[in-house]
C-alpha cells in the first residue's frame, strides 16, 4: 500500500512536470507568435510610410495652393469693392460739386 502511495506521488509529479512543460511550451509559442506579429507590423508600417508621407505632402501642397487661391480671390474681391466704392464716392463728390456750383450760381444771381 505504501508503495502504491509513493508510486502515485511519483506519477503525479511526473504528470505535473509534463503539464508544466506543456504550458511553458504553449506560452513560449504564444510569445514568439506575438513577437513575430509585432515585427511584421513594424515592417509593414515602414513599407507604408513612404506612401503615406507622399500622400500627406501632396495634401499639404494642395491645401497651400487652395489657401493661396482663396487669398487671391478674397484680395480681388476686396479690390473690386474698393474700386466700386471709389467710383460711387467720385460720383457723389461730382454731384455735390454740381449742387454747390448751382447753389453759388443761384446765389450770385440774387
Keywords:
mainly alpha; 1 helix; rod-shaped
Describe it for me?
The protein has 110 residues and is mainly alpha-helical. The chain is built from one helix and no strands. The longest helix has 108 residues.
Largest sheet composition: none
Number of helical segments with 4 or more residues: 1
Number of beta strands: 0
Look at the helices and sheets and give the structural class.
Answer: mainly alpha
Q: What percent of residues adopt helix (DSSP H or I)?
A: over 70%
User: Which whole number gives the mean pLDDT?
Assistant: 86
Distance between the termini: 152 Å
Extract low-pLDDT stretches: none
Order of helices and strands: H
From the alpha-carbon coordinates, what is the Rg to the nearest angstrom?
Answer: 45 Å
Per DSSP, what share of the residues sits in E-state strands of 2 or more residues? under 5%
The 3D shape can be described as rod-shaped
Amino acid at each position: 500500500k505504501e508503495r502504491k502511495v509513493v508510486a502515485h506521488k511519483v506519477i503525479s509529479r511526473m504528470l505535473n512536470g509534463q503539464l508544466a512543460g506543456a504550458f511553458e511550451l504553449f506560452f513560449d509559442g504564444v510569445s514568439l507568435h506575438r513577437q513575430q506579429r509585432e515585427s511584421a507590423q513594424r515592417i509593414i508600417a515602414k513599407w507604408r510610410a513612404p506612401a503615406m508621407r507622399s500622400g500627406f505632402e501632396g495634401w499639404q501642397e494642395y491645401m497651400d495652393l487652395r489657401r493661396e487661391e482663396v487669398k487671391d480671390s478674397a484680395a480681388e474681391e476686396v479690390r473690386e469693392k474698393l474700386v466700386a466704392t471709389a467710383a460711387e464716392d467720385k460720383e457723389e463728390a461730382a454731384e455735390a460739386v454740381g449742387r454747390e456750383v448751382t447753389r453759388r450760381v443761384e446765389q450770385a444771381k440774387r
